[in-house]
Design goal:
52% of the residues lie in helices and 13% in strands. With 296 residues, the chain is α/β, with parallel strands linked by helices. The structure holds nicotinamide-adenine-dinucleotide.
Length: 296
């Protein structure tokens, strides 16, 4: 029997195509299963869905963005600030994007405000798992000119406010034997930064307070860490601190040669909030484009 060579080529290439197609499908299935396994692993260790977070200073640049990041991860958010207007707008934005949020007026220098907020959160959500203390105040006053009222006011918001948040929410978390507290320190927490005397003293205190509480609550299920942001220009900073000379000084000292974007803090927040950081307490996580790592 004679074999038609053209027909043979057609049959061969058809068989080949079928084979290739089958292998291609198998490869896609294997890759999809691998990807699903990876996603399942990631969502297991970083899973925050259904958790509840309270954040002070949520009306500001950095904590506002941290709130958005946590909300995107499925966390119910309690926005705490003494400026009800800004947190009201953010609450609406989070809800419109499918999240859950409360806006509660809290002056962080008042313990009773924290106690009232905790009750409101427990009534609305039944629990609280994460606390971020990020309310802020600062002033560029030269040392000899600092009025004692200004000194006290900055320490009250930055340091006393952080202490009171830890006291009220920490007590609840210790009682239930689980929680993650993130306090916000700064590149100025040490070594010192010019033009921010009181602020720097307060931030050094925030770091020390956090380490003390981390030690105190380490066996009681409550982790306490700080995030140490570098330079993320807020409206206040632009108005009061950032001259051309200072911008140059900061950027020359920042290996990445740029300021941070507030959204670049979300990764550290999600990690410290989640069980992926279950053995991390008393740590200071630096997010500063290399600022702290550099001398000259
Ligand atoms: N922006 C930066 O580059 C930077 C760098 C390092 C650390 N930090 C720290 O990060 C935190 C957030 O900084 P930011 O730049 O987003 O600040 P921001 O000025 O944008 O916001 C601060 C928020 O704190 C609120 N606040 C002030 N006093 C309060 C009080 N008594 N009670 C309740 N709320 C009060 C304000 O209403 C405001 O919404 C602060 O602790 C700040 O010190 C900021």
């Amino acid at each position: 029997m004679t074999i038609n060579p053209i027909l043979t080529i057609i049959i061969y290439s058809w068989i080949n195509r079928q084979g290739t197609e089958e292998w291609r499908c198998r490869a896609v299935l294997v890759a999809t299963a691998e990807r699903d396994k990876r996603m399942e692993y990631l969502s297991q260790i970083f899973n925050l869905k259904g958790k509840v977070a309270a954040l002070t200073g949520a009306g500001g640049l950095l904590v506002g963005e941290m709130s958005r990041g946590l909300a995107r991860a499925g966390v119910k958010i309690a926005l705490l600030d003494n400026n009800l207007e800004t947190i009201g707008c953010l609450r609406e934005e989070i809800v419109q994007n499918g999240g859950e949020a409360l806006a509660l007026k809290v002056d962080v220098t008042q313990k009773t405000d924290f106690t009232t907020a905790l009750h409101a959160i427990l009534t609305a959500y039944g629990d609280v798992d994460i606390l971020i203390n990020g309310a802020g105040a600062n002033a560029p006053t030269p040392f000899f000119d600092i009025p004692v009222e200004e000194w006290n006011a900055i320490l009250a918001v930055q340091l006393t406010g952080t202490m009171l948040g830890c006291q009220v929410f920490g007590e609840y978390m210790v009682a239930k034997n689980k929680g993650s507290i993130i306090n916000i320190s700064s590149a100025s927490a040490g070594p010192p930064l010019s033009k921010a005397f009181t602020y720097s003293v307060a931030k050094a205190g925030v770091k020390n307070l956090s380490q003390n509480l981390a030690r105190e609550w380490a066996t009681q299920g409550v982790r306490v860490n700080t995030i140490r942001p570098g330079f993320f220009p807020s409206e206040f900073m632009k108005k009061k601190f950032l001259t051309t000379e200072r911008i140059n000084a900061i950027l020359t000292h920042t290996p990445m040669k740029r300021f941070g974007e507030a959204s670049e803090l979300a990764g550290a927040v999600l990690w410290l909030s989640s069980d992926a950081a279950s053995f991390v307490t008393g740590a200071e996580i630096t997010v500063d484009g290399g600022f702290t790592a550099m001398t000259i």
